[in-house]
Amino acid sequence: MGRLLLAAIVVIGVPAATCGYIILSEKLVALLPDKRQRVVRPWFWVAPAVVFLLVFLVYPTISTIVLSFEGPDSTTFVGIDNYTFMFTDPSMLIALRNNIIWLVVFTAFTVGFGLVVAVLSERVPYESLAKGIVFLPMAISFVGAGVIWKFVYAFQPAGAAQTGLLNAILVAIVPGFQPQAWLINSPLNDFALIAVAVWVWTGFCTVILSAALKGISREVLEAARVDGANEWQIFRAVIIPTISTTIAVVTTTMVIFALKAFDIVYVMTNGNYGTDVLANRMYTEMFTNDNFGRASAISVILLVAIIPIMLGNIQRFRQQEETR
């Protein structure tokens, strides 16, 4: 009965409240002089969004920053101890190192492969099929991808039947190959996890970059060919500069994902064997160690790391608008 009442409130109450707010706000605005209406009306329309931002974004952010200066039970002030722990504890330094590896390797391969696939797929008659195959992993959740690739990376000792697809293939085709524990041996395991994320996200980069390529004038490309430019020169001097803004946006998206990588690491190794990352460590500190102060400090560091990236992206957009 309680669930039915909640469903009724959501289905009927929310739209009714929205309509009531619109009607009431318009009636209140109508009481004002015409000049005032033009000034006040936009604020009535954006007020709900501003309230939601304050309640669900600004307040949690401020609260998290405050918690990052408090102890495990959030009752004692510990100053910068939580941040000191982050940059001195050996396990935290491993997580920081791994996040940097994710940031560089994951971003480079997803954007690079996405661009290559987008360019090459335009030159084949089965373009849609090729892009669909590359994009297909995006339909799988990151948890599902992690489970699938755990089976791919499964390891059995040399001489035993290999249940993992990767080891089975390599043992069959490479003479003398010794099966590898892909998720245990460091630093191989870090790159094995990154490969899963690249497999999932390359399709996203391909689709976005392919849409940008479609916007390049065919006349410009033909003119470059008439001038004697080969395909590599066209790619480097025409295609890349033309879609540079899109590349920057896609790169920013990949960087943000790399900074907050969690699902794949949690499912496949749970941060063991030297594969921990900041987001997984934040989860461990909060829900396993019950240390809300350290977890909050990690989340603040992730926020601070993302802010310059977003500011750079905004600045790039502004420069682009000024040149139009």
The coarse overall form would be: globular
Output the structural class. Answer: mainly alpha
CATH-scheme architecture of the largest domain: Orthogonal Bundle
Q: Could you tell me the CATH topology label of the largest domain.
A: MetI-like fold
How many domains, as an integer? 2
Percentage of residues in helical conformation:
over 70%
Number of strands: 0
**Biggest sheet, open or closed, and with what strands and sense?**
none
Report low-confidence residues grouped into runs of 5 or more.
none
**Beta fraction:** under 5%
User: How many distinct helices?
Assistant: 14
Quote the average pLDDT.
Answer: 88
CATH H level, superfamily name of the largest domain: MetI-like
Terminal CA distance reads 58 Å
User: What would you report as the Rg, rounded to the nearest angstrom?
Assistant: 26 Å
- CATH class of the largest domain, named Mainly Alpha
- SSE string, helices as H and strands as E: HHHHHHHHHHHHHH
Can you offer a commentary on this structure?
- The protein has 324 residues and is mostly helical.
- The chain contains 14 helices and no strands.
- The chain has helices at 2-30, 34-67, 81-86, 90-121, 127-135, 142-152, 165-173, 188-214, 218-226, 231-242, 244-259, 263-268, 278-288, 292-323.
Provide a brief overview of the structure.
The chain has 324 residues and is mainly α.
Please outline the helices and strands.
Elements: H1 2-30, H2 34-67, H3 81-86, H4 90-121, H5 127-135, H6 142-152, H7 165-173, H8 188-214, H9 218-226, H10 231-242, H11 244-259, H12 263-268, H13 278-288, H14 292-323
Helix pairs in contact: 1-2, 2-14, 4-8, 4-11, 5-8, 8-11, 11-14, 13-14
